[in-house]
Specification:
Pfam families: SBP_bac_1. It comes from Pseudonocardia kongjuensis. This is Sugar ABC transporter substrate-binding protein. Keywords: Signal. The structure is a single chain. By secondary structure, the protein is an alpha/beta fold. Helix content is about 45%, strand content about 10%. It contains 20 helices and eight strands. The strands form two sheets. Strands 2-1-3-8-4 form a five-stranded mixed beta sheet. It has a three-stranded antiparallel beta sheet with strand order 6-5-7. Strand 1, helix 3 and strand 2 form a beta-alpha-beta unit. Helix 10 (about 215-225) crosses helix 11 and helix 19 packs antiparallel against helix 20. The protein is globular, with a radius of gyration of 22 Å.
Amino acid sequence: MTPGTTTRRRRRPAVAAALLAALSLVLSACAGAGALGLPEGARVVTIAIVSNPQMEDAIALTPRFEAENPDIRLRFVSLSENEARAKITASVATGGDEFDAVMISNYETPQWAENGWLVDLDPLMADTPGYDQDDFTPSIRDALSGPDGHMYSVPFYGESSFLMYRTDLFAEAGLTMPEQPTWPQVAEFADRLTDRDQNRSGICLRGLPGWGEVMAPLDTVINAFGGRWYDEQWNAQLTSPEVREAVQFYVDLVRENGIPGSAQAGFSECGTQFSQGNAAMWYDATVAAGLVENPEESQVVGNVGYAPAPVGDDGRPSGWLYSWALAIPQTTADKGPEQVDATWKFLSWMTSKPYQQLVGEEFGWTSVPPGARRSTYEIPEYIEASAAYAPQTQRAITDADQENPTRDPVPYTGVQFLAIPEFQDLGTRVSQQISAAIAGQQTVDEALEQAQNYAETVGESYQEQEGVNP
């Protein structure tokens, strides 16, 4: 029996119990500590969290934390990815105090740190014996730092992107995955391996609207094709030949060889389809390997290969860089140092070395949150369980270059996003146009014309701020 299989079977009841406990706290959120059955002076810590599988594991394990910290109770607000981004941004940006801790990423962290919206975590880490912030993967640590070089969020996991493919199907078709595939090669493979009679798609790619959904993989394709959102003078480039070619390629690939209903498929939907054997390839986040290799949730364990993110003609690395991380809003500090201390106790527990060990022992080693800590890749059990994909994950994270994401110079940073405040709205608006093209509701040219209009408005504001002559 695969290591971790028996413990994984206990996961769902544990998750259900934890979610029921969280619900009870939600229902009594307005009550004081005494009403919650806590001793006077006890703290309730409210955490806004994204409802991904690794975060479900964290919720399921929180009774361990509460047993070790009887003066702290945790209240989770678990949200879908798009909903979490919207609610957390609205709360933090307006000074709302409903969340003591928030799950954000390397998109928000540097900007919000500069705005003064987040608590500096460096002093808290320094005062936590054994926490070892130097163990964080350097590229992830840098991505979660503010302009002063201090960390303002701590990584729960880190990821890049890669191509997952069915080795058994490739062998049956006489195909060989190159060490570094290109996007045209991937399209050829997808066309060869699509079999509608067998309910099998050649590839799964996100089509769900959202700057962190369809735009994440699509932006890496745009970069690979030599495209960019803006030139150095903030002139929008979404109708340039390079961007048109990239988006038309992506839309055609999804429509011809993607899963049914691709326009509403995000990370979760693609993960389900690929794990159930309904797709021959899947290009997405490296963290997906934990799902794909989990024998409790996947039917393709042992038949999956991992290749670097597909590239364009120039061969530049095109994988993204992302981290789901935990931060403390400044409004928590306004509640007093005791609330910050209680919140940090949980954040440091959930992002610590011992937590990695706990997840592996309880849920199986493929469930360990990857990418955040270098020491994770020194755990013997994890090395064995992740041998098929861990080297690719580490290499992809290391190779990702937020500072130089495109072939031609650009005035922004970020691989699968633009690190500007406007991108949350801009990226979402553009994603809606792309998703509509995937659904066949409009052409790619029509989608990009509208996207160009959105981008021009943002670009003009930066030209005015910087005194740039377009």
